[in-house]
Amino acid sequence: MASPALISETEQWKDLKQHVSEIQTTHLRDLMNDVDRCQSMMVEHEGIFLDYSRQRVTKETMGKLFKLAEVAHLKEKIEKMYSGEKINSTENRSVLHVALRAAREKEIYSDGKNVVPEVWQVLDKIKDFSEKVRSGAWIGATGKPLKDVVSVGIGGSFLGPLFVHAALQTDAVAAEYAKGRQLRFLANVDPVDVARSIKDLDPETTLVVVVSKTFTTAETMLNARTLREWISSSLGAGAVAKHMVAVSTNLPLVKDFGIDPANAFAFWDWVGGRYSVCSAVGVLPLSLQYGFSVVEKFLEGARSIDNHFYSAPFESNIPVLVGLLSVWNVTFLGYPARAILPYSQALEKFAPHIQQLSMESNGKGVSIDGTPLPFEAGEIDFGEPGTNGQHSFYQLIHQGRIIPCDFIGSVRSQQPIYLKGEVVSNHDELMSNFFAQPDALAYGKNPDELLRDKVPDHLVPHKTFTGNRPSLSILLPSLSAYDVGQLLAIYEHRIAVQGFVWGINSFDQWGVELGKSLATQVRKQLHASRVDEKPVQGFNFSTTTLLSRFLEVSLSLNMLFVCYYVYSPFMKAIKRCKNSI
Ligand SMILES: O=P(O)(O)OC[C@H]1O[C@](O)(CO)[C@@H](O)[C@@H]1O
């Protein structure tokens, strides 16, 4: 019998739907008393410890979720991804970010061709180039070594590398390799971001890496032209060859831009932008900053999870478990959001990366064959490192809306501090919160307990916590480059699991295109109004009003600017002349 078009039409889905009412009668306070249940919800891989006992699930729920995975053909879909089948059907592409971190001797095929040798060719080129730059063998146009790097790119060509950079910055090994060097990112087309990215940098000692899969993204290309101007106005047009390199799948456009193709680092259509941090997109800027050997460890970490995800049984497969639990929370329990709460400042850019990875991948309204989904898929991801988040939005999580939380912590700190006389080390202080918060969410505090604690009657409702708020905890051994690679791959695969079960295409992003085309229309109008004084037309009343006001106000501000800078020195000069007569 052919499988139903939508997963929601299967018996396994309907069974889970019915099971929801049973779960609604439970409370985590009681579920947590069942040690056998809790033990079955703890999983370990290479020192990474996942505890999902604070999810609103029983063993029975998990059994039903595994059955759902079976009927969704999760295993087969994972295999198809790894074997290079074109599972991104709307773009007719393979989805092979796992090939980016495959071992040199591995064989992975797309279109009948083993892609691993090409991957390693680029990695070897990056190793060679980054060593030349770092050692000073590659020098700038004026003969100085290049010590600073600005990576220009947006979306997937920015967020993943930024996350890894932020995570490695305080790792002792990586930091040692980065001494005397700076890596900055320029993503937003806002000129303020340009100013920030080059503040105090000297073009003579700076290398600009233009990162764009398509090499057509408007923001990136304008920023790249702006930095090209920054370099050539200071060092001459010829300096671009020494001070600008590119990462792209579109090498002809790299050449047209004026970057020597010999200084371009390729990647491929089978790498989605948001899954590209392990390609030259991340590996080049990060190797320039930390050296290739450190970045190789990051790739090895991701590879260890790739192997685990491919081969571990679902019951002990970390990405599969967390992916199925997300499906359960979003679609069956109806919790639309998830908070990502890393208890380390080193992971401060993790949530923004996951935001794009998850929301661009799974923010879809139709199944892979185009049928509208009769259920909610995708989720809203946000987060902040603990304990900053605690002093910001945790109030809502504790007593307002129910938001399933991912607590992510590490056994060892990257920067341990032990102060004499303190009760605990600084890391233990931080981690006390990591352990306490999930229990506060799960158990809550009921009025009886409060009265026993002699809380005045009128404050009891305000101090009551319903509890029963789900979370999961991931405890990593440390936050080395290897661990960071593992964490990244867990989330990449988790998102794929969600999409595979929901039956959507997690690897296209048609929604983003609409905004891009409307911006093109506005850009044309701004040009026509400013240069040829054309009236605003072709937009709705609201946009016409906003645009007209923007043009009018900026015109008057420009006039003021001209008066101040041109007229006032002119007037002062006349005054000086008069005085001297
Ligand atoms: O690398 P590119 O082609 O400049 O694209 C940047 C980003 O734009 C998007 O297409 C949309 O945000 C992302 O998927 C991608 O990561």
UniProtKB/TrEMBL annotation:
Belongs to the GPI family. GO terms for molecular function: carbohydrate derivative binding; glucose-6-phosphate isomerase activity; monosaccharide binding. Keywords: Cytoplasm, Gluconeogenesis, Glycolysis, Isomerase, Membrane, Transmembrane, Transmembrane helix. Pathway: Carbohydrate degradation; glycolysis; D-glyceraldehyde 3-phosphate and glycerone phosphate from D-glucose: step 2/4. One of its GO terms (biological process) is glucose 6-phosphate metabolic process. InterPro entries: G6P_Isomerase, G6P_Isomerase_C, Phosphoglucose_isomerase_CS, SIS_dom_sf, SIS_PGI_1, SIS_PGI_2. The keyword Cytoplasm applies. Its main location: cytoplasm. It is found in: Cytoplasm. One of its GO terms (cellular component) is cytosol. The chain crosses the membrane at residues 546-567. It catalyses: alpha-D-glucose 6-phosphate = beta-D-fructose 6-phosphate. Homodimer. It comes from Rhynchospora breviuscula. Its EC number is 5.3.1.9. This is Glucose-6-phosphate isomerase. It holds the Pfam family PGI. The keyword Acetylation does not apply. Gene3D superfamilies: 1.10.1390.10, Glucose-6-phosphate isomerase like protein, domain 1.
